[in-house]
Amino acid sequence: TGTIAYGVDRDGRSARAAGWGALLADYGGGFWIGMEALHAVVCAADGRGPATALTEHVLSRLSLKTPEDLIPWTYDQPFTWHRFAVLAPVVAEVARLGDDVARDILRRAGQHLADSALAVIRRLQLQDQRFDLVLSGSVWRAGELIQAPMRAAVLAVAPFAHFIIPTRTPAEGAALLA
């Protein structure tokens, strides 16, 4: 639901960025993507933003009938990060269908995630070094719509970064380490 960037250099120095929680700037994570989807739906309903297929898909996913139904859904339910983060796959689905608003949300998420990674890269002075950058977490399932802008931003600063997307679950990784 949130984000964190963490790195360790060859000398064992570490640095991190983000990981502050969704309300304190974990931009680009599942919660953020879900909130951006809700913002897009209500702005479209008001005429403050472009029409988007997110409206139909978000309302359907939440079993709601109108954008106005988002008000009690948002404020009357118990607040959990996950309730909002479940909309991230909806954004990815709608983006794959070609919706410009959904595509822009994922592009901006990729840029935000790159900003976090770049903060760590700069702190550890890795710009001119070869290093692995592991993209772990469910938001990367959106594929190139989020990965491409992230990669482009990172490679513009750290051209030797090598991107890895794990093919096993975190539990499998822990078992292998044990």
Summarize the structure.
By secondary structure, this protein is mainly alpha-helical. It has helices at 30-46, 54-61, 70-76, 81-85, 88-96, 100-123, 144-157, 170-177; strands at 4-8, 14-18, 131-134, 161-164.
Description:
- This protein is mainly alpha-helical and 178 residues long.
- The protein is 52% helix and 10% strand.
- It contains eight helices and four strands; from the N terminus they run ββααααααβαβα.
- The strands form two sheets. It has a two-stranded antiparallel ribbon. It has a two-stranded parallel sheet with strand order 3-4.
- Strand 1 and strand 2 form a beta hairpin.
- The radius of gyration is 18 Å and the shape is elongated.
Chart the SSEs and their pairings.
Elements: E1 4-8, E2 14-18, H1 30-46, H2 54-61, H3 70-76, H4 81-85, H5 88-96, H6 100-123, E3 131-134, H7 144-157, E4 161-164, H8 170-177
Parallel strand pairs: 3-4
Antiparallel strand pairs: 1-2
Helix pairs in contact: 1-6, 5-6, 6-7
The DSSP helix count reads: 8
State the total count of DSSP E strands: 4
Low-pLDDT segments: none
SS strand fraction? 5-15%
Features:
single chain, 178 residues, mainly alpha, two-stranded antiparallel ribbon, two-stranded parallel sheet, 8 helices, 4 strands, 10% strand, elongated
